[in-house]
Design a protein that fits this description.
Length: 323
């Protein structure tokens, strides 16, 4: 059976559990100073004194990463490039889950001590930066400057026919001249002497302070734009692992695939804060609960958010992860 065609319930559940674990670790990195397993109700002392980082794109990153890791698990020459580098807590959560972070930093072990180390030190003095950096395993760009991911992916493919590179592009990033110009590289870097690049556009509809242009186009306009650059568009609407695996399987048989992944900005996070829509809006871009340390209502919302992932089903102290 080809990957992505009629995947089993167990496979689908594995991908969903992995996404939940990565989402929980992402949120914990953004907010928590202690009480990382929610052993007791959250208090202001559990929250970092200064909240830095970006949430809105992170769930989408976790969904894409989990599906790619399953589909390409047997291919040693697979490589992932992340365009929205400001979604770094999601990437770091996945590097932690896979043991890649532990290889370069033994303190980041899949234990309670490792979870504490990961979460406390994200965007914290002397710890991990809020963006990907030279400290990140296998990093090739810093990640804070948007627009270069697709060009970098084609550069990695150049002269390496054995490589399969998946590159995730943010839809805000897709408005940069660099990203749009890089779509032309497909015509220059193709053939048997170079690797294969799979662009994936994270179409969540919003950037830092407003809607994205491409998301406001009709689907017909979106597809025709992608086709105009010589790609074959494949749409994935939502987070269903079976749909995503099917799309990856279709990409395998396509000469120049381009996946449009439609998801909600800030999905699985707070829907509304202080009377304002957050999930599915630009307000999810950075810290959706900026007053969690000082406002009891926001602290309660954060606890409800974290407990909604049911992390206790995914990690047990002394036994580790079960995903």
């Amino acid at each position: 059976m080809n990957p992505g065609v009629g995947i089993s319930y167990n496979t689908s559940e594995h991908i969903r559990r992995r996404v939940r674990a990565a989402d929980y670790l992402t949120v914990a990195q953004l907010f928590l100073l202690q009480n990382f397993l929610l052993d007791h109700p959250l208090s202001p002392d559990d929250i970092k004194p200064r909240l830095l980082g970006h949430w809105g794109t992170c769930h989408g990153i976790n969904v894409v990463y989990a599906n790619l890791k399953y589909f390409y698990s047997a291919r040693s020459e697979f490589q992932f490039i992340l365009g929205p580098g400001h979604g770094f807590p999601a990437l770091q959560a996945n590097l932690f889950l896979d043991g890649d972070l532990e290889k370069v930093d033994p303190k980041a072990s899949p234990t309670l001590a490792g979870i504490e180390y990961l979460c406390k030190n994200f965007s914290f003095p002397g710890g991990f930066p809020s963006h990907s950096s030279p400290l990140t395993p296998s990093v090739v760009t810093e990640g804070g400057e948007l627009g270069y991911a697709l060009g970098t992916a084609y550069g990695v493919a150049l002269g390496h026919p054995e490589k399969q590179i998946a590159v995730l592009i943010g839809d805000g990033e897709f408005e940069t001249g660099t990203a749009l110009a890089s779509l032309n590289l497909k015509k220059l870097i193709s053939g048997e002497t170079n690797g294969r690049v799979l662009p994936i556009l994270a179409l969540n509809g919003y950037k830092i302070s407003g809607p994205t242009i491409f998301a406001r186009k009709s689907e017909r306009e979106q597809l025709e734009t992608i086709r105009g650059f010589g790609f074959t568009p494949i749409v994935v609407d939502g987070n269903d692992p079976e749909k995503f695996q099917l799309a990856l399987n279709m990409a395998e048989s396509s000469k120049s695939p381009f996946i449009l992944f439609k998801t909600e900005k800030g999905e699985t996070g707070p829907e509304e804060v202080s009377g304002q829509k957050v999930a599915g809006n630009y307000l999810a871009h950075q810290i959706p609960l900026p007053l969690a340390k000082t406002e009891p209502d926001q602290l309660d919302m954060l606890e409800e958010w974290l407990r909604g992932y049911h992390f206790e089903e995914l990690f047990t102290e002394g036994k580790g992860f079960s995903i």
